[in-house]
Amino acid sequence: MPKRKSEDSHMPMGECISQVQTLLRERLCHQQLPQRPEGVDSQHKHLLELLKRTAAHGESNSVLIIGPRGAGKTMLLRRVLAELLVEDDVQKTLLQVHLNGLLQTDDRIALKEITRQLSLENVVGDKVFGSFAENLAFLLEALKKGDRSSSRPVLFILDEFDLFAHHKNQTLLYNLLDVSQSAQTPVAVVGLTCRLDVLELLEKRVKSRFSHRQIYLLSSLTFPQYLKAVRALLQLPDPGFPDATFRRDWNHSVEALCEDKSVEDVLRRQFNSTKDLRSLHRLLMVCLSRVSVRNPAIKPVDLQDAGRLLSADAKTNVLHGLSILELCLIIAMKHLNDIYDREPFNLQMVYNEFKKFLQRKSHSMYNFDQPVVMKAFEHLQQLEVIRPVDAAASRAQREYQLVRLMLDHSQIMEALQKYPQCPTDVKQWAESSFA
Ligand SMILES: Nc1ncnc2c1ncn2[C@@H]1O[C@H](COP(=O)(O)OP(=O)(O)OP(=O)(O)O)[C@@H](O)[C@H]1O
């Protein structure tokens, strides 16, 4: 076990590693907000100004933050809130209500949650209200200060905003947006959603009460920015990490890692498949879990392994459990796809193709009767490796039912590479371009 030299280390190696693990885990598991979010400056400014107007000047507002999953909608809002709450006045007066469309599945539950988050259960007591609007108005009224001249601003955050549009009559949305439009109580309604067509889901009367302010977070990260994000995620802060020598060594190793060609390939593949930073976090988390006293830095091979693990194809994995006969049928189908340009085929054609392969060999151990082949074919269908073209035509005789192969060439070849003890002639047959 490598031991660090005592003269340049203030902490034992085990302690350093445990601190690195804790710090990076907090970053990668979204507990810590990024210091400087990449590429969202204008959106950040827009949202901050808007919410400041509600928090400091009592102006009502409504806004939608729209972007795909993992685009940073929650992160942006949390950052803006953290900045707003630095001010003492705001911290004392601003009330927040967090609702989520996945949790508050109808307006009755949502109203209960609003009451709970505003700590107004005692005020409401056993009162019975005639309507939703009356209930909400009562809640907001209860928040007014003693002198009745001013109210405390309330920030309603509706995560998965589109799901609230499915509530009966969209009562909650209607009432919240109605309050945010009339100058009764300072209320800001912030909706977070990944649906670009969210406005189409709103009823006319709800839509007309929305301010139509929309902030789009459409990831425009370039690869160099993505790499910068990787560095920022892995590097240790200066100052902020107790052992300066360890920090320097770690940061050098991160620099070297980011410049490695094989690492760049893994990251580029990941970037091309998704720019979502959440997937990047998952990738780095797997690498981080390998860091230990014996292995005190992330190595290129860790990233390659993590990339392979996370991009493992479920269908390729299914192929590893197939019998040789089933694998041969898939190869026959691959060749049929090549010959007929991905047109559908039937079992008889597959069987003929398989027989052609057998005939090229003088003696073969793959002589299966047709019922056995039929059974294997059915198994492939159960696994959804093949699918009937037209389910309604299932009355046709089994052998002549048209099916399609649901795998592409790369998946088949990858599965063959990993198939335990795959016979060489089968491999060669799969690789050959002629049938
Ligand atoms: N521009 C950015 N800079 C730095 N980190 C970012 C950026 N955008 C997103 N992230 C990080 O990506 C992760 C996912 O972001 P977040 O949870 O805000 O996504 P979201 O859009 O709210 O997703 P969902 O629609 O699933 O709720 C967070 O850890 C966040 O810190």
From TrEMBL:
Domain AAA+ ATPase: 59-220
Pfam family, one: AAA_16
MF GO annotations: ATP binding; DNA replication origin binding
Domain of life of the native organism: Eukaryota
GO biological process, one term: DNA replication initiation
Coiled coil: none
Alphabetical list of InterPro entries matching this protein: AAA+_ATPase, AAA_16, ORC4, ORC4_C, P-loop_NTPase
Protein family membership: Belongs to the ORC4 family.
Self-association state and partner proteins as the record states: Component of ORC, a complex composed of at least 6 subunits: ORC1, ORC2, ORC3, ORC4, ORC5 and ORC6. ORC is regulated in a cell-cycle dependent manner. It is sequentially assembled at the exit from anaphase of mitosis and disassembled as cells enter S phase. Interacts with DBF4. Interacts with POLQ.
Functional summary from the UniProt entry: Component of the origin recognition complex (ORC) that binds origins of replication.
Protein name (database record): Origin recognition complex subunit 4
